[in-house]
Write a structure and sequence with these properties.
Helices cover about 60% and strands about 0% of the residues. It has a two-stranded antiparallel sheet. The protein starts with a helix and ends in a 21-residue tail after the last helix. The model is unreliable at about 5-15 (pLDDT under 50). By secondary structure, it is mainly alpha-helical. The chain has helices at about 1-15, 25, 30-40, 55-80, 85-90, 90-100, 115-130, 135-140; strands at about 45, 105-110. The chain has a domain at about 25-135. Keywords: Signal.
């Protein structure tokens, strides 16, 4: 009985601290964007990407610099309309410094202690994913040269 109770508690804690489901815009994005979203929920936000994602750095930096401050301000203004100290306490100044590149160090935080920081980081990544085009590997996924109804081939037969 005690083992069952312990397993139930462990399962509840795992569900409580698990990352929310990945939005479609992030699922359909490049690997780097999916990794950034996952890192955001693990407590890491970076405005300077690792070398393996160097092809995305310029677009990420441009997005953060031009659209990041508006996203960060909107998020915190909605959460703390009359209490600026609350926004400061939950990371607003640090995110603003990061999106304007006044601070380029990786921002590490504890998602279990402050649920807003991973939300802001993931929101920035999600909005970036929404701005990015679908990767080329997805473009022709549903295309066929045959007219509809004239082919006896199976959809996505190339995937088999």
């Amino acid at each position: 009985m005690k083992v069952l109770r312990a397993l139930c508690i462990l399962a509840f804690l795992a569900m409580a601290f698990a990352a929310p489901p990945m939005p479609d815009s992030v699922v359909n994005a490049q690997e780097a964007i999916r990794d950034l979203w996952q890192l955001a929920h693990e407590g890491i936000f970076m405005n300077t990407l690792p070398w393996r994602y160097r092809d995305l750095q310029a677009k990420w930096a441009d997005f953060l610099y031009h659209e990041g401050p508006g996203i960060v301000n909107s998020y915190y203004d909605a959460k703390f309309p009359y209490w600026t100290a609350g926004a400061r306490w939950h990371g607003k100044p640090r995110f603003l410094r990061m999106v304007t590149f006044a601070d380029t160090k990786t921002y590490s935080f504890r998602p279990s202690h402050d649920a807003m920081k991973p939300e802001v980081a993931a929101l920035l990544v999600q909005r970036f994913a929404e701005k990015m085009p679908i990767p080329k590997t997805e473009w022709g996924k549903d295309l066929s040269l045959a007219q509809p109804g004239t082919s006896k081939s199976y959809p996505h037969s190339a995937d088999r």
